[in-house]
Amino acid sequence: MAYTMEKVLRVRHWNDGLFSFCITRPPSFRFLSGQFVMLGLMVDGKPLLRAYSIASQHYAEELEFLSIIVPDGPLTSRLQHIQPGDEILLGAKPVGSLVIDAVVPGKHLHLFGTGTGLAPWISLVHDPEVYERFDRVTVQHTVRHVEDRAYFTLLDTHLANDPLVGEMAAEQLVYDWVATRVAKSSHGDPRRITERIRDGSYPLNPETDRVMLCGSMPMITECSKLLDEMGFVEGTLSHPATYVLERAFAG
Ligand SMILES: Cc1cc2nc3c(=O)[nH]c(=O)nc-3n(C[C@H](O)[C@H](O)[C@H](O)COP(=O)(O)OP(=O)(O)OC[C@H]3O[C@@H](n4cnc5c(N)ncnc54)[C@H](O)[C@@H]3O)c2cc1C
Fold it and tell me: What is the number of other CB atoms lying within 10 angstroms of the CB of residue 212?
């Protein structure tokens, strides 16, 4: 697989199991907000690569990623120790269906993510086109503990000061989160999004709502089943429809 060698610029550890990092962006690297790319390290002289959602803006000078630490994970047991100046392998071809061109026009875009499944939404909420195409945008992030909410200051307040999308985000973006292990949420209902969709307390309408799903297999499986039952249709970049998904990890 084609890849380039990039330099780590910054690393931020959010807690013991979660960190984000920025790397140099090759001039020829183009991507759509919400896409993912292969990323990794040289291990014993061989490339060890994994899929990673790109968290940065498609117009950013650097590339940013949010990573889990799986203690015995082949890549992340090593990647967790990266420091500025270290080298990272970056795949040459970003791909993925969590892009606005993969959903047909609608009024309200819902971005449902669990854990590191927040990363593509960080890219999308910085994209002015998202606010031009949709009247409302909701990021719904499900984590285990309150401390697992990466980028919470950005979503709570800082995005509103962004020179490019600040005004639109302040008007149109809602950031909701649920911490399931401690039964806390930003909106008073500590249940998982799937339970709220099922009993109608989080209403969704295939005529006007568009949904993107990223994260754990159980959330994706359950959410897509509920959406199918409601008349939503899964789309791709070549066949846009009313919802899209990315199965990011098994657990
Ligand atoms: C399309 C796509 C996008 C992805 N985007 C990201 C991303 O932005 N950030 C990220 O950290 N990972 C992401 N992943 C998962 C990533 O590819 C690796 O699995 C992860 O980096 C762990 O690699 P590893 O070699 O250490 O362990 P692996 O051998 O890959 O995984 C070991 C175990 O950890 C679980 N696991 C892996 N990743 C996660 C995770 N993110 N959250 C919870 N459990 C996990 C797996 O289910 C598996 O059981 C994505 C995967 C896909 C398919």
Answer: 26
Tell how far the Cα of 150 is from the centroid of ligand 1, in angstroms. Answer: 16
Token pair of 73, please?
Answer: 């994970």
pLDDT of residue 208: 98
Long-range (24+ apart) CB contacts under 8 A made by 46-49 are 47/1, 47/3, 47/89, 48/74, 48/75, 48/78, 49/1, 49/3, 49/75, 49/89, 49/91
Looking at the predicted structure, is the pLDDT value of residue 250 above 80?
no
69 CA distance to ligand 1 middle (Å) = 9
Ligand 1 mutation pick, 23, 37, 50, max ligand atoms within 8 A of CB: 50
Question: Does the reported pTM lie above 0.85?
Answer: yes
- Say what the pLDDT of residue 128 is: 97
Q: For residues 113 and 121, is the Cβ–Cβ distance under 8 A?
A: yes
Q: Which domains does the chain have, with CATH numbers?
A: 3-91 (2.40.30.10), 100-245 (3.40.50.80)
- The reply to whether ligand 1 has any atom less than 6 angstroms from the CB of 244 is no
Phi, psi of 69 (to 5 degrees): -115, 110
Strand partners, 8: 23
Q: Is there an atom of ligand 1 within 6 Å of 95 CB?
A: no
Q: For ligand 1, is residue 94 a contact (CB within 6 Å)?
A: no
pLDDT value of position 244: 98
In short, whether 64's Cβ falls inside 6 Å of ligand 1 is no
Phi, psi of 236 (to 5 degrees): -140, 175
According to DSSP H, which parts of the chain are helical?
76-79, 119-124, 128-133, 152-156, 166-172, 193-198, 217-230
**16 CA distance to ligand 1 middle (Å):** 16
